[in-house]
Amino acid sequence: MKKILAITIFTVLFSCTDNSTLEVFDKDQQAAEVNVKGFSKPDVIQMRLNGQPISINGQNSYTDKIETKISFVLDKGETDDLEIYNSQTGTQIAKYTITYDNFKNYYNLSFFNLPGIFLKTYAVKPQVNLGKVGFQFIFPNLGEFSGSSLEGVKGILKRENGLVLAEFDNIGKNDFSAVKIYSFFSVSAPVYLELYKPGTTEPYSNQPLIKVTLKQDIGANMIVLQEKMENGNVVVKGDIDVADYL
Prior knowledge:
mainly beta, Immunoglobulin-like, 2 domains, eight-stranded mixed beta sheet, four-stranded mixed beta sheet, Lipoprotein
């Protein structure tokens, strides 16, 4: 059964130990390393390698900012499972299958775990000057209900009167778009994000133009877009603001 030969920690408390050297005994083994950079709030989570809890600073479960390096030896033909669980409910949140052939794909592993959503990315709150509003977006379930095969969409952010506030050339599934900033104008007036196929003025799905109603907060807004079904129609919601957790 697979052995975790070394775990070098750099976590919430930002303390670390010296790297350990992995010994590879034959040509059918590889020294694998997974650099984890994650965030979970408010859930307390646990990471497990092949069912064995991964200890970080002596703790088997953790929350908030989570950063660690996991080092182990991979045997050819063997499958290793790195899993993330909710420590309180025992529910599996994510699973990564690592092999001799694909381990390099997991050298850097990022995640952002919030109530009801798991993002395979890491988020840093952008700097937005006083009196300004900044928006950035991610669209992790793009195509789930619309059937769209696109990997990203174009977004145009507008005021109620149609005035364009910002344009986003590509809002993708895996990473937040670049932040776009404009001057704050109201605590109550919503803004609207129209979604198009990249580089066009065509709706991104084979339906009428979808407009997402958004509440603008002064400062940074990091919105997770989600396709949902309402009364048989595809809609897109932008109710989750990652900036609220940072």
